[in-house]
Amino acid sequence: MRVSVGSGNPVKIAAVEDALADVPGIAVESVDVDSGVPEQPRGRAETIEGAETRARRALDAGAYDLGVGVEGGVADLASRPGLYLIMWAAATDGERTARGAGPTIRLPESMAEPVREGRELGPVVDEVLGTENAGEGSGAAGLLTGEAIDRQSSLAHAVAAALGPFVTPHYDR
């Protein structure tokens, strides 16, 4: 089975490879596509839309059996204080689309405030924590959890959840 990942980001590609590691006969390829949403998606709906758009565009980019899109965003949660990092993935075979989420992690106010003002999370994380290209490494997820989890493993869980209908017999076809 040929699977396309709608991103050139090595962390997102590795997350898809991790999620499919135990499935035999899989070839994962990267297809750099536009998400159709802002660089910093805001809210669940926009983050999910970005993942779905990436998945569709990745599938349409060639002779693939499955397209996968991964998107990170930020969201306020109803009746809960703070701004949260959220992660969503989508998978499609052209007929069905499935979605899955990764961890939701509250951002410290030192990061949340500049993001609320319109800045992207990645550069804010680097500025506040003194890192460089955190999104290409452990990401905000790793840095904010003391490396208990990292960006790749967080995204791999979202991808695995989205892939469920395509790799198990437990869903209606």
Walkthrough of the structure:
This protein is an alpha/beta fold. The chain has a single domain, classed as Maf protein (Alpha-Beta Complex), CATH 3.90.950.10. The protein contains six helices and six strands; from the N terminus they run βαβαββββαααα. Strands 1, 2, 3, 4, 5 and 6 form a six-stranded mixed β-sheet that branches. Helix 1 crosses helix 6 and helix 3 runs antiparallel to helix 4. The longest helix has 17 residues. The two termini are 17 Å apart.
Helicity level? 25-40%
Indicate the low-confidence ranges by residue numbers: none
As for the number of domains, it is 1
Proportion of beta-strand residues:
15-25%
Mean of residue pLDDT values: 95
Q: Based on DSSP secondary structure assignment, what is the total number of beta strands?
A: 6
Outline, from the CA principal axes? globular
Gyration radius (Cα, Å) is: 16 Å
By helix and strand content, what is the structural category?
alpha/beta
Layout of SSEs?
Blueprint: E1 2-5, H1 10-19, E2 27-30, H2 44-60, E3 66-76, E4 83-92, E5 97-101, E6 105-106, H3 109-116, H4 121-129, H5 139-144, H6 151-167
Parallel strand pairs: 1-2, 1-3
Antiparallel strand pairs: 3-4, 4-5, 4-6
Helix pairs in contact: 1-6, 3-4
Question: Any key phrases for this structure?
Answer:
173 residues, alpha/beta, Maf protein, six-stranded mixed beta sheet, 6 strands, 21% strand
In brief, what are we looking at here?
With 173 residues, this protein is an alpha/beta fold.
